[in-house]
């Protein structure tokens, strides 16, 4: 049976948050955001091992204040990040130990703490069938294409989805996509875009509008409200 490796990049500097520390370590109801995220992967039966990606200078802090403090036994390693998220993920892919071509890699933003076990399981199931999957939700608003301050197009809303994470891939496929992107100097907006660039199919799995990426102070307000409602 193929195994599933979780790769959680948490190497962003969080400049838009405007906080004194990187956003992944901000406390959300007494627990670091990153720890809340990792906890779901730790508890999910479908996840065999977890790799975190952190700024190199923060690896000791991440190990002591997240991995050791909360007793996460599935975390195998904390990998140094890169200058861009894509570079951080690539570092993580190259650091995975004992991985086979048909094993799955589940890539998830460290600052999306409201991911559910259901999303993990469904993303894995879809990737096992199709080779790649993305958790996403339909857009709620009308989307406009704007060039130089002028609307040039209104795409049909029913065709538009907001990509989230986790994004799941067969290891040989996502590794090849990252290898090719690195060789070409191509930067995509997410990991799925590297597969799309190769013409590979990526299946969509229904996500959740609460599966937000905490990036700004407004996101923290939303996250605290979600937690309050969950209690």
Any overview of this molecule?
The protein is of the alpha/beta class. It has one domain: Spore Coat Polysaccharide Biosynthesis Protein SpsA, Chain A (Alpha-Beta Complex), CATH 3.90.550.10. Helix content is 35%, strand content 23%. It has helices at residues 33-43, 59-68, 85-95, 117-130, 171-184, 191-197, 217-230; strands at residues 4-9, 27-28, 31-32, 49-54, 75-80, 104-107, 132-138, 145-147, 150-153, 161-170, 203-206. The strands form 3 sheets. It has a 7-stranded mixed sheet, with helices on both faces. The protein has a two-stranded antiparallel sheet with strand order 2-3. The longest helix has 14 residues, at 117-130. The model has no long low-confidence stretch (mean pLDDT 94).
Task: Quickly give the structural class.
Answer: alpha/beta
CATH class wording: Alpha Beta
Q: Please, how many helices?
A: 7
Number of strands: 11
Rg of Cα set: 17 Å
Shape-level CATH architecture: Alpha-Beta Complex
Low-confidence stretches: none
General shape = globular
Calculate the terminal CA-CA distance, rounded to whole Å. 37 Å
Order of helices and strands: EEEHEHEHEHEEEEHHEH
Catalytic activity: 2-C-methyl-D-erythritol 4-phosphate + CTP + H(+) = 4-CDP-2-C-methyl-D-erythritol + diphosphate
Protein name: 2-C-methyl-D-erythritol 4-phosphate cytidylyltransferase
Pathway: Isoprenoid biosynthesis; isopentenyl diphosphate biosynthesis via DXP pathway; isopentenyl diphosphate from 1-deoxy-D-xylulose 5-phosphate: step 2/6
Site (Transition state stabilizer): 16, 23
